[in-house]
Amino acid sequence: MNLVTFLPFIVLIGAMFLMTRSAKKKQQAASQMRDQLTPGTGVRTIGGMYATVKEIGDDTVTLEVAPGVHAIYAKNAIGAVLEDDEYNRIVHGASDDLTIDTPVVPDDASSLIDSTEDKTGAKDADKDADETPKLDLGKKDEPKGDAEGGTK
To answer: 122-147 in b/e burial notation, b at 16+ Cβ within 10 A?
Structure first.
């Protein structure tokens, strides 16, 4: 038989081997990471919740999701074990080397506009709007008459 006939099958078998091998490595790394769990460790679940490990069981782990609030999760739900400084930075916002070089953007745009208010609370821009002539856009007034366009 021809080698060209078997080439796609050889490539397919090789790709499947590589995929299962990388998946097995990821599972082993995740298992080792979960074995490092100790009470007091900061973790992130696969759902994105940050919590502190309180107790570790065979297949479960008790997490403190808020002060005094405990929840029981499967060990497989732990997505990452965090370093103490990273956990504190994310959860508590504590960081000594955090510097902000970008300007602070206000919550609303009203502070970006420079307008003064008079005693009645109306802004100067509102007073000027009544005094300015209206812009003619070329639309002519329709002649008065009946609905068909004719005049009486």
So the answer is: eeeeeeeeeeeeeeeeeeeeeeeeee
CATH (domain of 22): 2.30.30
Note down the domain range covering 51.
3-95
Residue 53 within a domain? yes
3-state SS class at 61? strand
Per-residue pLDDT averaged across 57-67, rounded? 90
Q: How confident is the model over 83-112, as a mean pLDDT?
A: 70
Residue 101, domain member (yes or no): no
CA distances from residue 122 to 30, 84, 114, 117, 127 in whole angstroms, order as listed: 63, 54, 14, 6, 7
The SS3 of residue 150 is: coil
Partners of 81 in beta bridges: 43
- Give how many domains the chain has, as a whole number: 1
Q: Whole-number mean pLDDT of the chain?
A: 76
Residue 88 falls inside a structural domain: yes
Average pLDDT over residues 81-101: 74
Alpha carbons 31 and 76: distance in angstroms, whole number: 9
* Confidence check: pLDDT of 62 > 90: yes
Helix (H, G, I), strand (E, B) or coil at 13: helix
Model confidence, pTM: 0.47
